[in-house]
Amino acid sequence: MVHVYNCHPFASQHIVPTEQEPGLVCCGGGALFVVSAGGCKIEAYQMQEDQCPLICRFSTMGTVLSIQHSQTGDYLVTIEEKNNATYLRAYTNWRYQAAEKTRVGVRLLGHFLRGSSFRGAPKEQMEIIEIPLFEPPLCMACCAQTGDLLVGCAKSLVVFSLKRQALNEQLAVLDFERVLILHIPGWSPSQVAFCAGYVALQMELEVLVLKLQQLEKRYLCPGDHALLPVDIMAASGLPDDFFVFPKHLELLGDDAKDCGISVSLEWTGMETEAKNNMGITYVLYRRFAPDFFQGCSVEETCLHSLQLHPMYTGNQDGTSDTKEPSCIFCFFSLPNAGYMYSLKSTVELISSYQYPEKTHHAVLCDQFLYALTRNALQCFSVRCSAVAARAEDPYIDTTMKACPPFTMEVCGLRIQLFIGLKSLCRDGNHIVLLTAADVESKEETERTGPSVNCKAHRIRLMNIVCVYLILNIHSQTNHILFILYPQVEYSKRYGQTSPLSHNCLHLLSEAHLLLRAALLGQETSDKVQLQEAFKESCAHLGDCFSRLDKRDCHLALPYYKMSGLSVTEVIQRNVAMCSSTVSDYGSGFLFFLKHSLYEETMEELSEETANTVLDIFSKAEPGQLPHVVSSLFMMKANPGCVLAHLEQLEASGGPSVTLTLCKAAHALRLGDLQLYQQQMDRHAEMLQVYGFIDEPKLLLHGRGKAVVPTQLAQHLHDTQDGLLVAAVVALHENSKVKLEEADLFFQELCKDSVETQSSPQLLVDFWEALLVASSQEAIIHELLFRLTSVYIDRITRRDCSGIKALKTAEDLVSSVISSPTDVECNYIL
């Protein structure tokens, strides 16, 4: 179910005053192209400037039936009709008409005017390129990456490669070369799309997506041909006036080759080196059965708005014209439902859209999906940024980063009423609508308008405010062009109504994905402000997940990390929220707090905050207190307060070795040696070793290059060094401490001793004990090398004064007699 929120993604709208009645529109390259209703004149307007000033106007050679603009090459391609014949033409250098350069050259594809026309200074002129075809063109599409042209005909698809031809040192012109024909018997596409080697074609109720690519083994098409409805009737012996509707069918990835549609390649280009290695791969096939909803006819249930949409991320080099897109999406729509698939890597259905009323045109972009009905522009959220974020960073779904899933339900943002919507196109953040107001249907419009009003279904949420501005519109004609600039601003205030509702989390996730799309696109100069808004959205999502008790409450951790908030700030936010409503803390917040304390990457907490953390865990998870109070970042907590909480835990849950060691450590911090000794005498040394295994932070803090002994470790060094060595050996054998970390631990512990040798005796004692206990061959060989060096150094210096080992040579010999490494140890001794 699509949720409708009272949000509007448009910042403003303007009317473009055209001199003639518009018939067709398209846009691209910052320009809006308006074809007159008669179809023989094109006007170009600058969309990036106020009032959309006219760039130029020029005449076409026939009546324009279809028009498209290519960003790469900045050319227009049209399907025109003249004298009952259909032509395909490309208009290049059209911007020269803005300087009132009236020269226009007309030529065939691949033919250039050589000779007097280009002698002397180059002539700047618009060129019209005639592109001959064996069959009349039905539809066409331009590749957003390369500028190549794909033309759909009745029985084939023709690919034209865009080339820049140098005529002399000063003049180069655009041209096309016909390089490939895809023969598809039985298919007359109504729409085609072309992007980065992907070819999509659409019939009334079928969509097929192929990919042209280099293949190790040339793979063209399956041997079976498609069975069209006529073939099915003939095979079944049914009468000619009996029609069989096909069933729904969806084939993804490798399974798409079983669709039964035969495709063959015919190379026509001059460059033939890559022919033998080129082939096609079937990517997607989907067939729909007619859906006669709301009394619609067969013609009204056909597919429309086929589109291949690339998405580029910021971690790639080059421009969007040359670099490989991170993701490619395929979108197509029925009148009552739309479908968006991801094509790169894994082919899968990302989102499906259920429209509240019949649509006839839709456009997909990075942030939104726009769909047209007769009198309304509908806006929906998309999941492009969620897919692209995972394509850019495969480790995004970890404890460090997070992103709302692309499987999240799509959201209907707004239904904006207009009069007589005809067509829709997009360029960047500009949406262009062509409307044709019918004066006679004014009463009908007034009668049906309230039925599509969103007020009855409005969900009022204050967590995020989406701001829009609609200017007053005064039309003088029945045909109006609207340009709408989508812009979303997010408020910094938190709503107090239903903060834990599904709708709240959904809306925050939508805002987060919109910001991700803006940052991934790298098309804005306000990157700093976007980054701040992105961090704020992460903080809001962290707050939501921190109060949840569901299985996804762990997402509070990565969202808080991405927010840039310190642990102290996160604690203050959650304490404030809980104090104003309930005293119980959410599972997500506790998960974040435990993970932050155990990771040892947070800042040291102040005494007040550390005491607050003690209160939180004593109420929520008292069993975690021994581990919490052992953290380096809790060192400023009041020792008396800590002992009080530990005494309360022991009274309610009974004694344990780890709890007793924690009490002893904090008795040392208080300077109460009597209480310390009392706690240490409660358990034997072997049980205390198990307690240190359960909580290593009782002895050391930090990992890697920074290992800091605790106050308890310093005291054991002075009073019970044998227990200390045994505990560190046990930590190493239980993979709690690495050998290098143990070395640093003893080096730091003994740095103030009077010993002169490079390796302190306590470290040598640790090596000797670990050699006896370890069963790892690599560790044994390393220890043998180290101890051999120490013993040789002592023998050569013959000065062992001041060295007091834990075990004598006789003790070591006795310890290793039953060891499998006794030969090696005896060799050392």
What is this structure's SSE topology?
Elements: E1 3-4, E2 10-15, E3 22-28, E4 31-36, E5 41-46, E6 54-59, E7 63-70, E8 75-82, E9 85-92, E10 104-108, E11 126-131, E12 139-142, E13 149-152, E14 156-166, E15 172-183, E16 191-195, E17 198-202, E18 206-214, H1 229-236, E19 249-252, E20 264-267, E21 278-287, E22 304-311, E23 327-333, E24 337-342, E25 348-354, E26 361-364, E27 368-372, E28 376-381, H2 384-392, E29 411-417, E30 421-427, E31 430-436, H3 442-448, E32 479-486, H4 502-521, H5 527-546, H6 556-563, H7 567-580, H8 587-599, H9 607-620, H10 625-629, H11 639-653, H12 657-670, H13 673-680, H14 685-694, E33 700-701, E34 708-709, H15 711-719, H16 721-733, H17 739-749, H18 761-773, H19 777-797, H20 809-816, H21 822-828
Parallel strand pairs: 1-29, 10-11
Antiparallel strand pairs: 2-32, 3-4, 4-5, 5-6, 7-8, 8-9, 9-11, 12-13, 13-14, 14-15, 15-20, 16-17, 17-18, 18-21, 19-21, 22-23, 23-24, 24-25, 26-27, 27-28, 28-29, 30-31, 31-32, 33-34
Organism: Pygocentrus nattereri (Red-bellied piranha)
Domain BLOC-2 complex member HPS3 N-terminal: 3-449
InterPro entries: HPS3 (IPR017216), HPS3_C (IPR029438), HPS3_N (IPR029437)
